[in-house]
Amino acid sequence: MESKGLLADLICDSTHIADVPLGTLAVGSAWDEEFERFDISLRNDLEGRSNIDLSGKLTPKLKTIEAEINLDRLNVGYVQPILTDVFSDMEGYISGKINVDGPWDSFSISSEDTRLDDAILKVAYTNVPYYADGTFHIDDKGVYFDDITLADRGSGTGSVTGSIDFDHFKDISFNTRIRANNMECVDLSEEQADAFYGNLYATGNI
User: Does residue 6 contact residue 32 with C-beta atoms inside 8 Å?
Assistant: First the structure.
């Protein structure tokens, strides 16, 4: 009987996602006859650093996926296009480990030692950028802020706790709490928002 084995290796040079460079991207797959699955891998090289290193298994017969994704200062700008309603600009890096397991259409996700470093997140509704650093974790129901510190472009400081809730990345809602100390909260001109505009600073819990 002829083997159904399938090997594939793809090298993409000068890869970009959302106009953000990803460097050289290597994608590999191999068919495992014994377990009737694809063993897959994905790894990039950007200026000598691998920001994403994925290894996993795809089982077509069961329609399941199992994967481990190691992140080392992965640029958050890659996901900015799907969050434009929340953040008009995103910079910074995510590190840690992401685990994926289960059916293709409803897999479980979890994280280990995930953190945000040197981030700049510009809130679309208020037009205010914030500098953010700290730890978080993720599962099927949301992203949870464990210890995220904030700073505005002046001397204001703060922190954020709570979560961004969803159901397998659908029906997104916010359940966040912000502690602010003289932080910039609004920076809108009349042209940007004729109903409510100006420059506003706040202290307290939001």
Answer: no
